[in-house]
Amino acid sequence: MKNNKSKIALLFLLITGHFLFAQIDKKATKETKNLYKNLKTISKSHILFGHQHALEYGHGWSNEPNKSDVKLVTGSHPAVVGIDFSDFSGRTKEETEKSKEALRKNVMNTYERGGITTVSWHFNNPASGGGFYWKDSISVPAMSLIKEGGSHHEEYKEILKTIADFAHSAKAKDGNLVPMIFRPFHEFDGDWFWWGRKYTSREDFIAVWQFTISYLRDTLQVHNFIYAYSPDNRFNNESEYLERYPGDNYVDLFGMDDYGDFGRDGKYDLEAGIKKLKIISDTAIKKKKLAAFTETGLESIPNADWWTNVLLHSLQKEKLELCYVLVWRNDAVSPTHYYAPFPEQISVPDFIKFYNDPYTLFENDLKNIYSAKFKLKHIYND
């Protein structure tokens, strides 16, 4: 069991439950509301560890039940499991249905185990070829076309209906809808995706974001989503971070994707990265919302002590309130494209230290995360 140095403070928070928070869906399911509140509790003194596509595939394997590289190393799945809605558009109906069924099993199994699902959306361009990336001479700037009044708005509504159908169908054995953290249009301040800043005006981005949340929440009656806003790291102050902010009624969680400050291409600027994490944490505290480090990692993890000397150090340098940190995927076939360790990878000993640190939480540390009776297992020795 982990030694928890913040036991008294966290127990007080759990007992009192006195949180002022501003979840945007007033009709959210009980489980979704509880998750939101419990994530806020966690962020006061801990952080959840997450891994993208953790249970779908890993380094050298795919589609094996109840398996993850993180579990192979630590004995526990990550607390937060990332999936993607990329196959919900630009695919045949059969391909989309196959993807929906696989993801449905994934999120229901994660819920049954007591873990949390977060959803990214590598959205294939609905108005041109090129997929989700921007490709010169192929891609078109489609955000202006999918907003209300745009030439592809009705098509966009049909795509959102596919997402809503999935949300409504993700029912666990207890009959409850599985809560998910939905993170659309991520890294929108970059120029690699077709919804990026270079190809989308501020006004069009905000209009599409507001319509997306309103249509899912209010028209299609999706009430098991928590909505996350996550640019990349191209900001240096709160004003720049909020340049495309759609408003307090359309965002539950403030995030950031940042690889560049944490070792990409051998370059480190931890001072800058920590400053940006402080900005999103402070913004969330001010606006009474959640914050998270929504994507990061070091490809191939060549730095053997990256987990403690870089990531954990950065997360603990300032007083941050972040509910989770998620590293990117481990490709099943690439020998170098991975962001979490697997058995015998060079950073495994350091990752075990990261896992054992009382600040970090994995799936085995959680109990009743969707309940008002939420506990951390290692506190209560359950």
Model description:
Strand 12 and strand 13 form a beta hairpin. Strands 1-4-5-6-7-8-9-10 form an eight-stranded parallel beta barrel. The chain has a single domain, classed as TIM Barrel (Alpha-Beta Barrel), CATH 3.20.20.80. With 382 residues, the protein is α/β, with parallel strands linked by helices. The relative contact order is 0.17. About 3% of the residues have low confidence. The protein is globular, with a radius of gyration of 20 Å. It starts with 6 loop residues before the first helix and ends with a helix. Helix content is 36%, strand content 13%. Helix 9 packs across helix 10. Belongs to the glycosyl hydrolase 26 family. Keywords: Carbohydrate metabolism, Glycosidase, Hydrolase, Secreted, Signal. Pfam families: Glyco_hydro_26 (PF02156). It is found in: Secreted. It catalyses: Random hydrolysis of (1->4)-beta-D-mannosidic linkages in mannans, galactomannans and glucomannans.
